[in-house]
Write a structure and sequence with these properties.
about 500 residues
Length: about 500
């Protein structure tokens, strides 16, 4: 049990690093959706579309090396070789990417339909971000959670304050100051957001740059081949996840009439952000448990610990899901600046449930990570991606972003189910499926009833939250009391 206490402490610290930046990003949605900053919903849609491409290329440029680094650092005797080989690989591929962009940037701009002035900034964001991947992974591996969290918090603070300065204050300062007048460019709001992102990325890189001075630059080609083979399915899996996460916005742009596409993307993206509160919990939990999975793999009977980890996730997640759904109409007022965006609110519970399924899938993924069967990550994710694409193509023309939301839920739910049944064959883990299914079903049912059946009745919503937590307390009170005794 003490191992789980340590895990929860790590989760809490990583949670700060995850929750704070994501909360700030939601606050920025409030600013970006304010008509005095970005006047049209369609402009916010354009911004969201470009960020979708950033997410896609972030996955390509890191190509699964972070997870591969975790795996081989724990299994290889020569840790220095793993460290230096990973870093050299990332630096080399970043240089190749920059060179490729410099030659073909006009062609890329035309193909993606993104202005070159945006692309020039975005490419630097991508390169600087990918150079922090291995240093940050190394901090997690050494359980330097506090330092990791501080770097993440500094990054988001720089991004936040530059957004405030460039989008709100710069225009007024430029009236009276010749210096600020030279900086200010009219109708440049989208570019300013990317500039703020770039400076935030540079701040993180500068804090991590000692890493690159402290490693021995010695590439082990044999090791690199093994790491790349291990990482390739992770890359495919990452690309598939990116399709599930961001391609809906890209497909909305392609499949809807040009007159409404960007507006639909803007509304959908703003409301989609409210689902981030479930993602916060899942991500923080994942950051803490991934090193734990590998460190426990060679110890006696790790399967029971893995089973308890998932069960705990589902119990806590069930409570969080119902609470967030009941609070959605309050959250929309706080975090979305213009009522025009609220037209997409009805998709938020669907996305929240989808993210809950994704969190369960991430916990289930332990079986293919510790057995080196990462090819199944690719198989499962590719299946989810194909399902996403198929349902988006099928439903967007008739149902718009509602079709995209359904496609996201279908993809993550199917991936969760597939991972469980395939894992049962290759690496059986004694999950208490009756309890897990019970909590999942109750939380989803209460969420759907409260939002779609009694959305205007706050008393019913509060009752649903109380019912969910009363069920948890009644069934888990021995574990809760034991946890509090250990924490004292």
């Amino acid at each position: 049990m003490r191992k789980f206490i340590e895990l929860f402490k790590q989760t809490f610290i990583y949670g700060i690093a995850t929750v704070f930046p994501r909360i700030i990003s939601v606050i920025l949605v409030r600013i970006h959706t304010d008509k005095s900053v970005i006047s049209e919903v369609a402009e916010f849609g354009t911004l969201s579309l470009i960020f979708s491409y950033i997410i896609l290329f972030n996955v390509v440029l890191s190509y699964g090396m972070e997870t591969s680094f975790f795996r081989f650092y724990n299994s290889e005797k020569n840790k220095e070789d793993v460290l230096s080989t990973s870093a050299i690989s990332i630096v080399f591929t970043s240089i190749i990417f920059m060179s490729f962009f410099s030659i073909f940037k006009l062609n890329i701009s035309e193909f993606l339909q993104i202005d070159v002035k945006y692309l020039n900034i975005v490419v630097w964001i991508l390169v600087v971000d990918v150079l922090t991947v291995i240093p940050l992974a190394y901090l997690r591996l050494r359980q330097r959670a506090v330092k990791y969290s501080m770097i993440k918090i500094i990054n988001i603070c720089v991004y936040f304050f530059l957004n405030i300065f460039l989008l709100i204050f710069l225009k007024d300062l430029a009236v009276d100051s010749p210096i600020f007048k030279k900086i200010y460019i009219e109708n440049y709001e989208v570019a300013y957001i990317f500039i703020a992102n770039l400076f935030a990325s540079i701040a993180s890189f500068l804090l991590l740059i000692p890493f690159y001075f402290n490693i021995k630059y010695r590439a082990n080609i044999v090791l690199l081949k093994k790491m790349l083979i291990y990482a390739f399915p992770i890359l495919i899996s990452g690309l598939a996840f990116t399709i599930n996460e961001t391609f809906d916005k890209i497909l909305l742009d392609f499949l809807l009439p040009e007159s409404i596409a960007k507006t639909q993307i803007g509304m959908y993206s703003a409301c989609y952000k409210l689902a981030i509160f479930m993602m916060l919990f899942s991500t923080a939990y994942k950051l803490a448990i991934e090193p734990f999975f590998f460190s426990e793999a060679e110890k006696k009977d790790p399967q029971k610990k893995y089973a308890l980890v998932l069960e705990t996730f589902v119990i806590i997640g069930s409570s969080i899901l119902v609470l967030i759904v009941v609070s959605l109409d309050l959250l929309k007022v706080i975090f979305i600046g213009d009522e025009e965006y609220w037209k997409a609110m009805y998709i938020v519970p669907i996305i929240l449930i989808a993210n809950f399924c994704l969190g369960i899938y991430q916990n289930l993924s332990v079986w293919y990570k510790v057995t080196d069967k990462t090819k199944f990550a690719a198989y499962i994710s590719v299946f989810g991606a194909f399902l996403t694409l198929f349902l988006n193509f099928l439903m967007i023309p008739s149902y718009g972003f509602f079709g995209s939301a359904i496609a996201t839920l279908a993809a993550y739910f199917s991936m969760m189910i597939l991972s469980y049944f395939i894992g049962k064959r290759y690496y059986p883990i004694p999950y208490n499926m009756c309890k897990i299914i019970f909590y999942f079903a109750i939380s989803v049912s209460l969420s759907l009833v409260s939002f779609y059946g009694f959305r205007d009745n706050l008393q019913i919503g509060i009752l649903c939250v109380l019912i969910m937590n009363l069920i948890i307390f009644t069934l888990e009170k021995k574990r809760i009391y034991g946890l509090f005794r250990l924490l004292r």
